[in-house]
Structure formats: structure tokens, C-alpha cells
Amino acid sequence: MIQGLRNLAAASLGARIPCRLLALLVAVSLCARAPAQTTNSAWMWSSASHPAGAVNVLGDKAKEREMIANFKHWGFDRIYTSFGTLPNSTPEVPASWNASLDDANISSQMLFGLVNFSPTQMADLVQTRLVEFNNARTDPRERFDAVHLDLEPHVTSAFQNGSAAERQAILLELRDTYAAVRERLDDNGCSYVRIYSDLPVWFDNLTSNLGWANPADRNQWFDDIALSLDGFSMMAYERSTLSSIVSGVGYEVANFDGEVRIGLNVAEIGPGDTFASFDALLEMADSLRSYYGTSIGGIDFHALTSYSELAPVRLAGDFNSDGLVDATDYAVWRDTRGSTTLLDADGDFDGVVGESDYQLWRLNYGSPGAGSSAATAPPIPEPGSLLLCCLALSSWPIRCGHGKLRQ
């Protein structure tokens, strides 16, 4: 950080704003931290008819960068993406996407959504789509971190019209499918790849005609799938109160030996629906985090297409995604200027942090959208105005956080 200030000071062409103000701005940039990343996620289906669909984003570098910037702004720590045959037909596309996500500290999970399947069919699909792809990549950043299995046999007519014994047989096949995928990964050099799944909240219900003979029978099924799964998302849909969601996911949170996340359906928003507004849905997510703390892994939103329509995108120039365009964003731009890999300050999504990104920040600095009035906004720091600032900082004591004064 200090070396960066020295380099910019050496290149300074003169001060354009009062030194005291700029010294204060840079002091803020030295002390401030980017907001902590939360643990949100979403299902990114192919969705050809939607701009946020995977088929419309993957392979378009500018759209990928913009989407990942929004992921960071939304607090995503992972994304579940449907790739179709891309890993086979155009492997460089998912490879680049995975590497960019890795650079942003976001986990990439290959999403499969199936209703009809068998253990062997699912294992073969993971083999051809993920195992062969991962084993061909020499850069670990380009590999998939996990498989995400959205397998829903409970929506089939065989399950819905079946007897308790027939339903239990279907659940046992689901258990065996998880095990087959785990075995295929382990036997083919991909033991590091994790497996996550989606489950309805009522699989643990002893009165749902699922064929559980007793609580021990139910418990054994969950113990068995824990041998294969690293975690799952509980689809807590059509539940509008905290108590109803807690009632639905309580067994899994308390008993499953793995990560449990809670899924909310963004499509259930509107008059008379589960949530009256998007804000109400976000308030529920916050309530769940407050209630469970670290007992849950995070909140998942279904689907990304719906979420992206309602969630606020990152402000232009807000390079640290804290909801403000201020001096700390300038510090992000300054420290990554010229980078083609550290792209938090790539505001125009052209793949390099450059002068155009500074101009984007400059135009939005202190704007109403950034939370302050343009009429009263402070003067804008310029790249060539740091020399006097550095001189001032050399003689001014600066207090960072709660630490002692530095002379």
C-alpha cells in the first residue's frame, strides 16, 4: 500500500484539490475495509429467454464480468450453474468462467436438474460432463468445485400416485444415486469435488406417507446420504413465516452431518403470494441468518433469473460493493490499476482496470445514487494529485480504527 502511494506520488503532476481533504480521503482508504462477504447463492439455469440465463451469459466476457461483479455485490459465495454440453463442446467457456469465479472467491458448482434418472445414468452424466473436464484442466482455478444435484423424483407421477412402499423405494434410489456419484468421483481422481443436493422440507416427515417405519428408519436414510453429500439446500417454498420455515428445516439443521442451506423462491412475490415484496423476502433471509447463525451455511435464491430482476445491481464506480461511491473505491482502482486479473475496479467490464474505469468512478463520485448529494459532494481526487497528500501524511498523525496514533 505504501509503495503504491510512493509510486503514484512520484508520477504526480500537481495538486488539483486541497491537500488536507485529499489526505483525509486517502487516510480513509487506508483504513476502510470492503464489506464482509455473506453466503448467498442462486440457481443459474440455462433460461434462453432471459438475459441472466446461463446460455446468454457464458462465453460473453463482458456479461460474465458484469454478472460476477453483481454476484460479489449480492454476497454470493457460490453459484449453481447449468452448463449443458459446454464442458464437452466448448470447454474453454466453463474453464474461463470457473477461473473468474475462483479469482472472485466464488465457488463454481455444476448444476444438474433431473426428474427421471437412475444411479448409473447420473454417475455416467457426471463422468462425461465434469470428471473428464476437470481431469483435462491443468489450472486448478478452471475446475469445478462441486456437483449440485437438483434431483426431484417426488414430482413424478410414480411418486405422487405411489404407495408408501413405492415412495420409499424411490427415496432409496435417490440415496443410491448420491452414492453412485460420490463413488464415480472418488474412483476417477475427483475426490476433491463436493456434492450438494436440493431437498424438499418434508422428506423427514413421519406422517407424509413416505414409508418410514419409525424415526430410526428415517434417521438412517439421512445418515446414509450424509456419507455421499457434503450438504444440501432445503427448498423452504410457500412458507411465509419464520416459524413455518424453522418447522420445515429444523430436523435437518439439528441432525444432518453436513452443510444445510435454506432455499427461498423469488418467484413467490406479489399480492397474495408468499412474500408481499422483494424486501419482505430479503427480510426473511435476514431473519433466518439471525435465528440460525452459523448453524446454516447460507441462503439460496431460486432462481437467478428472478433474483436478478429485483436485486439492486452494483452502483457504477462502487468498486468495493459497499453501496457507496467514495474514496475507498478510488483506493481499489488505484491499487489494481492496469490489472487484468484483479477486476473489482473494472467498471466497464472490458477486462482491464484502466483510465476509463477511473472516469466512471469520477462521474459517479458523490452522486445521489451513491448516497449523497452531487451539489454538496467533495472535490474529486485525481490520479496526479497524491504528491502533496503524501507530504501531508508524512507529518500528520493518522488514526486507523481503534489503534494508536501513527507518527
Polypeptide structure, described:
With 407 residues, this protein is an alpha/beta fold. It is 44% helix and 12% strand. It has 2 domains: 2-34 and 325-339 and 346-395, no CATH class; 40-310, TIM Barrel, CATH 3.20.20. It contains 16 helices and 8 strands. Helix 2 crosses helix 14 (327-336) and helix 7 (119-136) packs parallel to helix 9. The radius of gyration is 25 Å and the shape is globular. 38% of the residues are buried. Keywords: Signal. Residues 1-36 form the signal peptide.
List the helices and strands and how they pair.
Blueprint: H1 2-10, H2 19-31, E1 40-44, H3 54-57, H4 61-73, E2 78-81, H5 86-89, H6 92-103, E3 107-114, H7 119-136, E4 146-151, H8 157-160, H9 164-187, E5 194-200, H10 215-226, E6 231-235, H11 242-255, E7 259-265, H12 278-292, E8 298-302, H13 304-310, H14 327-336, H15 355-364, H16 387-395
Parallel strand pairs: 1-2, 1-8, 2-3, 3-4, 4-5, 5-6, 6-7, 7-8
Helix pairs in contact: 1-16, 2-14, 2-16, 7-9
Keywords: Signal
Signal peptide: 1-36
